[in-house]
Amino acid sequence: MLNGILLLKDIGFADEEMFNANIDGKTWEFRRGILTFNFSAVHAEFLVENITLYFFVSSRKKLAIVQISCIIRKNTIKEEDRIHMITLKSDREIQAMEESGAILAGIHEELRGFIKPGLTTMEVNNFVQARIEVAGAICEQIGFEGYEYATCTSVNDEICHGFPGKYVLKDGDLIKVDTVVNYNGAMSDSCWSYVVGEATPEVKRLMEVTEKALYLGIEQAKPGNRVGDIGHAIQTYVEGEGFSVVREFIGHGIGPTMHESPSIPHYGDAGKGLRLKEGMTITIEPMVNTGVWKSKMDDNGWTARTKDGGLSCQFEHTIAITKDGAKVLTQQK
Questions:
Q1: What is the pLDDT averaged over residues 2-23?
Q2: Residue 274, C-beta contacts closer than 8 angstroms, at least 6 positions apart
Q3: Last residue of a domain, one of 49, 69, 87
């Protein structure tokens, strides 16, 4: 257990791929702007004095990972750099999240029969909100950074964060329904894609590839692997099938709040990035496009859609990293 002040200096603030620094007789790895410490900590703070970083660490009993995210260039550090805490969940906490996830999975199961031509996206939203509230849970998205709805309902070329509204679903539409459930303080997050009426061959294949990509990513979510292993598995498969992976929007840690560290890109290099630890809870949520991966933003400041007007599909699960691998907490029947 570490307690006190760690001094990190003279590490050569160059744009190198990776280097090591010796702190208190231990070697720590620095890779692509991410410096990761493994210790028992309640908080950590850092300040910058020229090119010297001072880390102040306070101890606590529960093991956590403190990830200090820094974009470092010679003699500079961005103001927005900040500390991210990644909490490792106990079996009890994971069980609570699984109970939350069961509510969410059940709602997605119901949506299979509910979504049909003629419904508005607001009616879909209201259906989900009612189901969450009947279960005694909270629609966690409402009020998040000013967001007003229980769901994101993104149709066709909308990648994510589509506002529910007056749009009337028609045969062949591809709708993505994303929501977050807070059940007694335990979070679960899942987006699922649905075809309205009959699917065209293009939509059917896009959905099949996206869902398989999700599970290929989940297979890599195990202790000892790195975040890059998840993204690499997804990206190589998707691009090999002739589609593209969205890069502007990614997965994330979850619990105790809706969005936590670490970030989980759906692209990247195998063997790179943060090492995965037992007890982490994250979302994996690849967004896959028929055309280019780039997006453009609607005037509402929330809704992202494909830059070229192509279709976009998404599937998402909340998972826990266990000693046996990934445990899906939002698994549908």
A1: 35
A2: 34, 36, 67, 226, 227, 262
A3: 87
